């Protein structure tokens, strides 16, 4: 089923689904019951800089985990135990969500492990960025931009095509970094913008695209959201943007020049969920992509909660199908 954006601009195709299994219904009820405890965990502080995980304790089905650092940021490569026949020529860098305040979770590693197992032509890596509240955007975003440039340069030298993927706040960051880098290149008359490497594809799952939280549809969806509330998303946004204006394009990608994605031929795929207070802004961002000719495939799953893909580890059917959709889309890139 195609929505208005898809009919108007064929470069953006949107599939709408509205199923909700009994098991997912139960999970959402449990999540709603314990929402206050879950949201309070987001305020916990972590060490300054990139958060390091214990690779020895990480147990991923069919994969191993190795650690490296780039520009002082820990990156975790997820490597299938069954080695591919050919050297991979694609690379997925995944930025995990967590309200800019929690490190990648076990659920994130399981999703990325599936991608690594199912895409033998693609290396999959999780990036552990510095976290708010002690490492908010004014100090962290410049570090992430340096990392972005270095990862793109390394991929170009290795002959790899890069896919940037992320969920929630991680999706926010990959959109912000890519758009800001494109703007820097476009505004710099001394550089040949076409020769500077960028990702070929972005995959944004339940993205946070506008930190002002001014969209009136947020309040309309709030009663249906079992996980997030307007108060929660305002607090977490403030913890990230800190002294910067919430509308600053470096934290609210909806305010950057989205047409630069189309000019560079960067595809933007995504997932939005109907029981997610962040979905109205994600849908607006998707519409802006359609207006300026960005190509992409999107799924809107009406009765699902924020980042429902992360329940894949527990056998939730909608999550398994959505992650398989992600794999199928990225296999074609």
Explain how this protein is built.
The protein is an alpha/beta fold and 333 residues long. It has one domain (4-331): 3-Layer(aba) Sandwich (Rossmann fold), CATH 3.40.50.1820. The protein has helices at 4-8, 22-33, 35-41, 106-118, 137-158, 169-187, 217-221, 230-241, 259-264, 279-292, 317-331, and strands at 12-17, 63-70, 73-80, 90-95, 122-128, 161-167, 201-205, 267-275, 296-305. Strands 1-9-8-7-6-4-5-3-2 form a nine-stranded mixed beta sheet, sandwiched between helices. Helix 5 (137-158) crosses helix 6 (169-187). The longest helix is centred in the middle third of the chain and has 22 residues, at 137-158. The chain starts with a helix and ends with a helix. 46% of the residues are buried. Residues 1-9 have low confidence and may be disordered.
How are the SSEs placed, and which strands pair?
Elements: H1 4-8, E1 12-17, H2 22-33, H3 35-41, E2 63-70, E3 73-80, E4 90-95, H4 106-118, E5 122-128, H5 137-158, E6 161-167, H6 169-187, E7 201-205, H7 217-221, H8 230-241, H9 259-264, E8 267-275, H10 279-292, E9 296-305, H11 317-331
Parallel strand pairs: 1-9, 4-5, 4-6, 6-7, 7-8, 8-9
Antiparallel strand pairs: 2-3, 3-5
Helix pairs in contact: 5-6
GO molecular function, one term: hydrolase activity
Protein name: Alpha/beta hydrolase fold-3 domain-containing protein
Domain Alpha/beta hydrolase fold-3: 93-309
CATH class: Alpha Beta
Helices and strands: which structural class? alpha/beta
End-to-end Cα distance:
23 Å
Please count the beta strands (DSSP E, at least 2 residues each).
9
pLDDT averaged over residues: 92
Helical stretch count? 11
Question: Looking at this structure, what is the CATH superfamily?
Answer: Alpha/Beta hydrolase fold, catalytic domain
Number of domains: 1
Strand order across the largest sheet? 1-9-8-7-6-4-5-3-2
Order of helices and strands: HEHHEEEHEHEHEHHHEHEH
Keywords: Hydrolase
Pfam family, one: Abhydrolase_3
Protein name: Alpha/beta hydrolase fold-3 domain-containing protein
Domain Alpha/beta hydrolase fold-3: 93-309
């Amino acid at each position: 089923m195609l929505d208005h954006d898809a009919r108007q601009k064929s470069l953006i195709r949107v599939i709408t689904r509205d199923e909700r299994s009994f098991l997912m219904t139960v999970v959402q009820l449990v999540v709603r019951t314990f929402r206050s405890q879950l949201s309070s965990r987001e305020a916990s502080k972590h060490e300054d800089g990139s958060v390091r995980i214990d690779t020895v304790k990480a147990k991923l089905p069919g994969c191993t985990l190795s650690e490296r650092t780039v520009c002082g940021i820990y990156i975790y490569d997820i490597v299938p135990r069954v080695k591919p026949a050919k050297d991979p020529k694609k690379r997925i860098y995944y930025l995990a969500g967590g309200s800019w305040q929690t490190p990648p979770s076990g659920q994130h590693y399981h999703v990325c492990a599936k991608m690594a197992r199912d895409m033998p032509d693609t290396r999959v890596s999780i990036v552990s960025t510095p976290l708010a509240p002690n490492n908010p955007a004014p100090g962290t975003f410049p570090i992430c931009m340096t990392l972005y440039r270095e990862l793109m340069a390394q991929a170009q030298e290795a002959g790899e095509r890069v896919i940037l993927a992320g969920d929630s706040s991680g999706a926010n960051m990959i959109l912000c970094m890519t758009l800001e880098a494109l703007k820097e290149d476009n505004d710099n008359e001394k550089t040949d913008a076409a020769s500077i490497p960028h990702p070929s594809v972005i995959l944004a799952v339940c993205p946070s695209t506008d930190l002002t939280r001014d969209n009136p549809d947020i309040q309309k969806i709030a009663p249906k959201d079992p996980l997030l509330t307007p108060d929660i998303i305002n607090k977490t946004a403030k913890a990230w943007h800190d002294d910067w204006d919430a509308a600053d394009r470096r934290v609210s990608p909806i305010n950057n020049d989205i047409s630069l994605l189309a000019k560079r031929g960067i595809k933007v795929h995504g997932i939005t969920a109907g029981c997610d207070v962040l979905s109205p802004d994600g849908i607006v961002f998707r519409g802006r992509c359609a207006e300026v000719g960005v190509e992409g495939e999107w799924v809107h799953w009406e009765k699902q909660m924020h980042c429902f893909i992360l329940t894949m580890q527990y056998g939730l059917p909608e999550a398994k199908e959505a992650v398989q959709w992600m794999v199928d889309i990225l296999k074609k890139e």
